[in-house]
Amino acid sequence: MKFSLLVLAAPYSDQSVGTALRFAQTLLQQGHEIFRVFFYHNGVYASNALSTAPQDEANIPRQWQQLAQDHNIDMVSCIASALKRGVLDESEAQRYDQPCHNLIAGFELSGLGQLVEASAQSDRVVSFGA
Amino acid sequence: MSSLHIVNKSPLSHSCLDECLSCCQQGDELLLIEDGVLALSSLKPQQLDKLNALGLQPYVLAADVAARGLSTRLLPPFQSCDDTGFVDLCVKHPKSISWF
Fold first, then answer.
1. Which residues form a coiled coil (chain B) (predicted)?
2. Shortest distance, CA B48 to any CA of chain A (angstroms)
3. Domains: count for chain A
């Protein structure tokens, strides 16, 4: 079955991000498929490449990145949520004349249309709220 | 079309569970996750009545129950559900509604 996930919670603040990650890993192990993970509101902090955890703690952005790489999953952060929270890709950094960009590789910034498309294309959408 | 209701907030600090119960229909199921599992120690009689009236099966996510030391409070009507069970519930019901 084809799933999409909506993640609204911030890593290191809310438990939901961890629940969503475990849920994603479990459903892939069961042979299901993930069409897209859409990060919205504070969820976009999971796409900050500069997020730095101590060595003995989980680096949540890296865990999502690894999951995306291993299973070729489309990871999208809401562009409006991300820009306001200081998560920019290269082209947005240029557009707004910012000195650097920090969107983690494997993610892309896009609009809510991607969430709508994900609900249309997937059998199930599961939300993980803050 | 049945729904899976997912509640992740404690009934002691949020009204999510009450709001959820007011919208549930027969055939739906309820999954308590994260702080939602605190309902194991704080479910009010009227909430239990509502569950029974709807014939609603409440599940609690096993990892969250263990993390909060509530395993000994896991009594009927609540049933434990592991991560695999969480996915299975989402497969079983055409829609899932998250209350947070």
1. none
2. 25
3. 1
